[in-house]
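in:
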């Protein structure tokens, strides 16, 4: 009897199973507040080093201030602080409220702090073990959310799109896999990608910092992650403070993307590592805009994505040289003005399940766009002036682009505002806007 080889890792195992169904969803993940140091799975030495470093930086701190800095309950830190005091690494400066004290470093503690900084200058939240993070990704996978038709429609309600596009976009978003948007510039690929990001509503929890094979890796990034504020009426902590509650992440990059940004970055001076972009995007959306125009050659980038797209795992190298498997659990969006066939081969396209051509709008759609956008600028849409615009500046002269409806009306608004006139569509204002925008006709100044 033949045997099917088992998946090489838990992420591949999840991928090899039947598609996720709504009924298969696990209870919402929420990291429990640790009641003892053993619950964190961290050792005393790591916690002591963090205490030494933060006291060296701040000088004098109460025990509860140290607790807040390390994101650990005071009930866990209090015995450790007492032990360090008894061993004469720290001392009391003054008494504080509620049985607390103000702490300072003693000379032996200062030596400990300087020694710890030589290994790593990291200060802040106590880390979360990598194994706990892996479990959180499985329980918060973007594929478990599965936005439905109503959710997608709501996310796109401020755009005018060809209804046929929704027949492709909806299932693509629901799948939580990969999507390739391509077409001429100005037709709304970036806007579509941004609305796709809005389709995922559930908040998730991520560690502030990871501990991977003895290496500290900062994961939470305010530039990529939007923190969700807690209820100010909650008197007790609702979850482990070493974690951050965020909206599903949306990581957006363009021409500035480099190969280095896809690897763990180690700061030689501070001896602290930072997670790469795709790790920050886990359980969320990773948008690569203007694909093919990065400083690194697109084939090199494509080769970098082959394994993650196929296996939903990635391989990273730690500062100590050890290679690790990491989850690649994200909806990846490629947006490009170039023809995908000129950028990627069939092997790569096969790994992106959905390819969407964002076409030029036809005249009827362009009219709907203008009528939809005009009220935003306080302009009344005028059918006769739209016909003038079409016959004078479009038919037989140039293709339509979705962005042009907005851009022309914005110029009309700016001109009216400059002349202290009520915004309106006139032939003169439309002519001037098209001259500025297309630079294809003589000056016309009779406004």
């Amino acid at each position: 009897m033949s045997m099917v080889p088992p998946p090489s890792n838990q992420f591949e195992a999840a991928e090899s199973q039947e598609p996720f169904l709504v009924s298969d969803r696990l209870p919402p993940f929420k990291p429990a507040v640790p009641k003892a140091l053993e619950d964190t799975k961290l050792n005393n030495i790591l916690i002591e080093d963090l205490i030494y470093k933060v006291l060296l930086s701040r000088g004098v701190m109460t025990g509860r201030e140290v607790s807040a800095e390390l994101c650990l309950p005071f009930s866990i830190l209090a015995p450790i602080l007492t032990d360090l005091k008894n061993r004469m690494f720290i001392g009391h400066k003054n008494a504080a409220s509620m049985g607390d004290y103000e702490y300072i470093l003693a000379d032996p503690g200062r030596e400990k702090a300087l020694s710890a900084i030589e290994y790593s200058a990291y200060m802040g939240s106590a880390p979360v073990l990598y194994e706990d993070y892996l479990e959180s990704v499985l329980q918060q996978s973007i594929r478990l959310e599965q936005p439905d038709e109503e959710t997608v429609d709501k996310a796109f309600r401020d755009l005018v799109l060809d209804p046929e596009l929704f027949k492709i976009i909806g299932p693509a978003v629901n799948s939580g896999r990969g999507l390739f948007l391509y077409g001429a510039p100005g037709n709304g690929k970036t806007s579509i990608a941004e609305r796709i990001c809005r389709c995922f509503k559930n908040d998730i929890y991520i560690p502030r910092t990871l501990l991977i094979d003895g290496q500290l890796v900062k994961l939470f990034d305010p530039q990529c992650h939007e923190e969700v504020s807690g209820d100010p009426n909650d008197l007790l902590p609702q979850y482990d403070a070493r974690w951050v509650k965020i909206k599903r992440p949306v990581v957006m990059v363009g021409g500035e993307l480099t190969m280095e940004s896809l690897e763990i970055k180690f700061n030689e001076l501070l001896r602290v590592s930072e997670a790469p972009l795709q790790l920050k995007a886990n359980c969320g959306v990773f948008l690569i805009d203007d694909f093919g125009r990065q400083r690194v050659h697109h084939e090199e980038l494509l080769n970098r994505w082959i394994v993650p797209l196929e296996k939903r795992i990635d391989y990273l190298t730690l500062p100590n040289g050890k290679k690790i498997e990491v989850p690649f659990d994200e909806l990846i969006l490629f947006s490009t003005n170039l023809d995908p066939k000129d950028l990627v081969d069939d092997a790569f396209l096969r790994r992106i399940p959905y390819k969407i051509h964002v076409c030029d709008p036809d005249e009827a759609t362009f009219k709907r766009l203008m009528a939809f956008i005009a009220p935003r600028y306080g302009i009344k849409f005028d059918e006769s002036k739209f016909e003038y615009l079409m016959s004078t500046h479009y038919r037989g002269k140039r293709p339509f682009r979705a962005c042009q409806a907005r851009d022309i009306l914005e110029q009309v608004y700016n001109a009216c505002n400059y002349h202290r006139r009520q915004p309106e569509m006139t032939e003169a204002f439309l002519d001037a806007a098209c001259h500025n925008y297309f630079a294809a006709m003589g000056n016309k100044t009779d406004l």
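note: Residues 402-418 form the longest helix (17 residues).
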